[in-house]
Design goal:
By secondary structure, this protein is an alpha/beta fold. The protein has one domain: Alpha-Beta Barrel (TIM Barrel), CATH 3.20.20.150. Helix content is 45%, strand content 14%. The protein has ten helices and eight strands. An eight-stranded parallel sheet has the order 5-4-3-2-1-8-7-6. The chain is globular and about 45 Å long. GO terms for molecular function: isomerase activity. Keywords: Isomerase.
């Protein structure tokens, strides 16, 4: 049975008690869980927010990214070691929140590129860091689901085929694939065929509109998406990820220069869309 989540990045990247009223209302709407960005925030805040979620009956998933000085595909041993250490710290904070999934493009550094196409050595170096990450995450009861991003934000994995190639190199049962409809809309030839391709390894799923606004307000074919998920018998999270300029520092870091949708419109209408699509495409 699928669970429906909402990523609170629509309001803020910072994990703090300021999110409590937002979490309360998301629970009232009907969400099963929420997703937080794990960044360099006060460590005690993760436990406080995690406790509030547990008290509400909201489950938790998490997302993170890597910087250039902690790039898992770096040819420099010290940089890759820093990547391992960063990811272990992130997983500890995810555990403080009570998270069961860590998703995101942490297989490589965000928006860090080479003057060539990715090569086997890039995937090989990433796989070594990812294997260690999967091992540590397994000890915490957290599933790792690295994500393929579009070509303007990611060098290593833009498609499900590339992500699958990496996962074969990692070869660890606690590391599966993440699919995001926003990125797939740009990089895949077919949403349904790419979902079918990665289905055996699919561990997490983001419902995102083409412009990152309210799901259902753009041109993503969600009928195609949900029909493919039903065919694949996917039973994991369906988490809405939409962005705004509510948190200017975060918005600036990912190139969000205008408002796509108001956060509560995103949350309320996105929830209705997912519920209706699940009902429509149920067996």
């Amino acid at each position: 049975m699928n669970k429906i989540g909402f990523n609170v990045l629509a309001w803020s990247a910072v994990v703090s008690e300021d999110l409590f009223p937002i979490l309360d209302r998301l629970k009232e709407i009907g969400y099963d869980g929420v997703e937080f960005f794990v960044g360099p925030w006060e460590e005690k805040a993760f436990k406080r927010v995690g406790k509030h979620c547990a008290d509400l009956g909201l489950e938790v998933t998490t997302v993170t990214v890597m910087g250039e000085d902690e790039n898992p595909i770096s040819p420099h041993t010290k940089v890759r070691q820093k990547a391992k250490e960063k990811l272990q710290w992130v997983l500890d904070r995810a555990a403080d929140l009570g998270s069961t999934v860590l998703c995101g493009p942490y297989h490589s550094a965000f928006a860090t590129f080479e003057s060539r196409a990715p090569e086997h050595e890039d995937y090989f170096r990433s796989a070594k860091v990812m294997y260690a990450t999967a091992e540590y995450a397994e000890s915490l009861g957290i599933l790792c689901t690295p994500e393929a991003l579009n070509r303007f934000e990611c060098f290593l994995c833009n498609t499900m085929e590339q992500l699958d190639y990496l996962l074969k190199e990692v070869d660890h049962p606690n590391m599966k694939a993440m699919f995001d409809t926003h990125h797939a809309n740009m990089e895949e030839k077919s949403l349904s065929k790419s979902i079918e391709y990665i289905a055996p390894k699919l561990g997490h799923f983001h419902i995102s509109e083409n412009d990152r606004g309210t799901p259902g307000s753009g041109h993503i074919n969600f009928d195609e998406v949900f029909a493919a998920l039903a065919k694949a018998k996917y039973e994991g999270w369906l988490t809405i990820e939409g962005f705004t300029r509510n948190d200017p520092d975060f918005a600036n870091s990912i190139g969000v220069w205008r408002e796509f949708s108001e956060p509560w419109e995103m949350a309320e209408n996105g929830y209705k869309l997912i519920k209706s699509m699940l009902e429509k495409h149920s067996d």
